[in-house]
Design brief:
mainly alpha; Glycosyltransferase; globular; disordered N terminus
Length: 346
């Protein structure tokens, strides 16, 4: 695990800290979000079954990765999916600079950095891409030896913040200049902000509070979240909102408690629809952070069994958004068993 010093004006020089994190830094300012939302939690032994599945999935990503760090499927050439694939590699805990996936991580980081708009740091062609790619930079910072990551991360965060400030809903939509908002894109951006804060980037408390208020406006009576307003709750959007509230330290709020009740009561309806792997990515984290640890244990056991039956002979998983996205999402739903990344700690 890694322990990174919280900074207010600029990032510290990247360093890798090996071993178990033994202390959790507290917030240094009442107006800045930081590492206390990612307190350490040492996982138990990872089963042979999970390790085998994870290795096969990573080997699939490695075998199908192109020379420029992308994947030739539906969305595999977009920075967001490339970013999630990087996070899946980092989450296994191998040395990102000298381990067996170091070359692949470097390729994809190079692609993400090269895709950034030089003027404003915009990553890709939508805030979905930008949010997931920013998350990858935040998780790579301090672990991957590349001096370009810190400045790119700061620039990417600044774009998220300026986009939010201009948005009437104080949330996010497809474009940085969007005048409306939805709970899925907002989740990608808010999780990226919280991960960046943990990496040492200055994130104002007001930005997080404003984003959570938008989620509050979209919560339905059943505790789930709608897409742009209350109504039409589903597992994926509710998992996103639940994760955001828990990462922001709001587990005692009625809004968060209602999301937990919705997710637990509907856990058996995960299905196999178009957004199955998208839900697994967020659902795993949402259940993992629930106060009742048995909720995560039960969810995780079912997830392992399901993913084992769905994993292809080549090690990958197939879904409507492409094999690279589906495989990265499946792996990240299993990654809570390892708990190497700061964002995957309780």
């Amino acid at each position: 695990m890694r322990n990174r010093k919280l900074q207010y004006n600029k990032l510290a020089s990247p360093r890798v800290f090996i071993g178990i994190m033994v202390v959790c830094l507290q917030l240094l300012s009442l107006h800045t979000y930081g590492q206390s939302f990612f307190s350490p939690s040492t996982g138990g032994e990872v089963s042979v079954e999970v390790e085998e599945m994870y290795r096969k999935g990573l080997n699939f990503l490695v075998a199908t990765q192109t020379e420029n760090g992308t994947w030739n499927d539906n969305y595999g050439r977009q920075p967001g999916v490339v970013g999630l694939s990087v996070v899946a590699m980092l989450a296994h805990g191998d040395d990102p600079n000298y381990g067996q996936y170091a070359k692949n991580i470097k390729r994809s980081i190079n692609f993400i950095l090269s895709s950034a708009n030089k003027a404003n740091g915009y990553l890709g062609s939508s805030m979905y891409n930008h949010g997931f790619a920013t998350l990858a930079l935040a998780e790579a910072y301090g672990a991957v030896h590349d001096e370009r990551i810190g400045p790119a991360l700061e620039k990417a965060v600044k774009l998220i913040l300026t986009s939010q400030a201009k948005n009437p809903y104080k949330a996010w939509r497809y474009s940085p200049s969007g005048r409306d908002a939805d709970t899925t894109i907002s989740g990608a951006c808010l999780v990226a902000l919280l991960a960046a804060a943990n990496a040492g980037v200055n994130v104002p408390e007001k930005a997080v509070k404003d984003a959570l208020n938008y989620y509050k406006s979209c919560q339905s009576n059943d505790g789930g979240f709608g897409y742009t307003s209350p109504g039409g709750s589903n597992l994926a959007r509710t998992a996103i909102g639940s994760l955001c509230y828990s990462l922001a330290g709001k587990q005692k709020s009625n809004i968060y408690i209602k999301t937990v009740n919705y997710l637990v009561s509907n856990a058996g309806k995960r299905g196999r629809g178009s957004y199955y792997f998208y839900y697994l990515y967020y659902g795993a984290q949402a259940f993992f952070r629930m106060p009742d640890k048995s909720a995560w244990i039960n969810w995780n056991q079912i997830n392992i069994k399901m993913l084992k039956t769905l994993q292809g002979p080549n090690g990958g998983w197939s879904g409507s958004f492409g094999a690279s996205f589906s495989t990265a999402s499946a792996l990240l739903s299993l990654a809570l068993n390892y708990r190497f990344l700061p964002i995957y700690e309780r």
